[in-house]
Amino acid sequence: xxLFGLFGKKxxxxxxxxxxxxxxxxxxxxxxxxxxxxxxxxxxxxDLEEILVTSDVxxxxxxxxxxxxxxxxxxxxxxxxxxxxxILKSEITALLTENNTGSNSDWVLPEHAHPYVILVVGVNGVxxxxxIGKLAYQFKQAGKKVYLGAADTFRAAAVEQxxxxxxxxxxxxxxxxxxxxxxxxxxxxxxxAKANGADVVIIDTAGRLHNKIGLMNELKKIKDVMKKVxxxxxxxxxxxxxxxxxxxxxxxxxxFAAVTQITSLAITKLDGxxxxxxxxGISDQLKVPVKYIGLGEGMEDLQLFxxxxxxxxxxx
Length: 316
Prior knowledge:
Blueprint: H1 9-18, H2 20-34, H3 42-54, H4 59-76, H5 84-98, E1 116-121, H6 128-141, E2 146-151, H7 156-169, E3 173-174, H8 182-195, E4 200-205, H9 212-229, E5 236-242, H10 247-259, E6 264-268, H11 278-286, E7 290-294, E8 302-304, H12 307-314
Parallel strand pairs: 1-4, 1-5, 2-3, 2-4, 5-6, 6-7
Antiparallel strand pairs: 7-8
Helix pairs in contact: 2-3, 3-4, 4-11, 5-12, 6-7, 8-9, 10-11
């Protein structure tokens, strides 16, 4: 069984419910755009373009999607407005497939990586610590031994928060005093985790984008120090973004990608927003797979992103 094969049907219900606002936003507009029309023409495509852009799919990605639909219309000569939903569904799924984004539904920890080290980046307030806590919980539920490293040493609150999650989930947290060298915390965490046979290590880092050079140097130093303990660490650099901020999340993603190599994305707070389209756009623009999506407060509301299910929920 894959690592997160723990939640079946309930997971899809959470996804449907979490994307409700985005769906209503897209669909009410789409219904108005095709009202009284039988075929997809230029006017329908113009309206569709506007709908996708205002749903935070982003301009460049929207243009790609429209272009694909135009090619289809040209090829098939006649495309009815009834088919538009299915066409949108298949084109967006195809786009996410090209960016190597989910299906992670049967994701398993690679055998060779022991412990499997995840370095978590993202600005404060995006749900970074919560995401770490929920990940730790799900790994633990799957029978894995987890260690957390509190390497965001610039905010006392960050260390406290991660400790609260550690206590709640029942996993050890390695920390030092506030203002300590983040690389030193990462080093301690990996040493401790390795000595105690941990399966997974999740390291929190400070998210100060206004000081990009400092951030870049710090992340490089953390990575270099990790390699002394686990030569191929980190195995994953996970960027956490707040989906409810729409285009602002795009900008953060771009800035983080400029300072470090991002390998996966977690997009949080999708349940309270109509901006769920941002998942499609960010994945397409960054060419980095969306791995997790946050759909609520509960421990299980952080899900592995599954593109087919996501698109299905969006266009149901």
